[in-house]
Amino acid sequence: MLLKKLAIASLVLATTSGVAFAHMNYKGDYKGEAVAVPCPAYVYQAAPYLGFSMGLRNNFNSIPNVFRGFEGTLSGGYAAMVAPWWYLAGEIYVGDNFDISNYTALGSVKSKFTYGIDFIPGYMITDHTLAYARVGYTRARFSGPGVWRSGGRLGLGLQTQLVANWDLRAEYIYSVYSSVGGANPRTDAVNVGVIYKFL
Questions:
Q1: Which terminal CB of the chain, N or C, has fewer other CB atoms within 10 Å?
Q2: Predicted confidence (pLDDT) at residue 95 exceeds the cutoff of 60
């Protein structure tokens, strides 16, 4: 299941990257010779950004109880190239979801609202495409017992330029929360979204 989700996210980025790169010229002509153009680091100049993403969220625990929702997330952050090819960002986010299915009788793993903060290091794998990791703190309200729980989350993603100021992002995120009803809820999510950079 996890491999299938990662494959879908990668396919979306691969398809759109082709469109994004179609208008780029990676070679110049100097005295009749084709020369490589250096990495245009200006694509990720230090700047704030806003983002919106949507995706599937699966909550589960050791019983296992399962909740599945379709989640929308708003995010804002600040990003910069900290070295040639290396990227770093800090991001805050809020998210909410609606039910697709809820297989638990007690509702202990059903979440309705999340927020948190992430640290996002990345590496430019092409001139306009970034591979990144996500490490952060998250809180979620579990609506069965009606309690808030804190947790940590890890993610992997790809981000590519579509046009000036606009990027496409696809990612997988895994989260673990403190105990709810004697079990530790866990979440996996696959998201696709867009980023607007204030360059």
A1: N
A2: yes
The whole-angstrom separation of Cα 41 and Cα 37 is 11
E strands, 103-146, in order:
111-124, 129-142
Cα 15 to Cα 11, 20, 29, 181, distances in angstroms: 6, 9, 28, 43
* Single pTM value for the model: 0.78
The vertex-78 CA angle with 75 and 79, nearest 5°, equals 115
CA 50 to chain centre: 13
Question: Which of the following CATH numbers is that of domain 2-19+46-197: 3.30.530.20, 3.40.50.150, 1.10.630.10, 2.40.160.20?
Answer: 2.40.160.20
Q: Which of 81, 36, 23, 28 is nearest to 197 (CA)?
A: 81
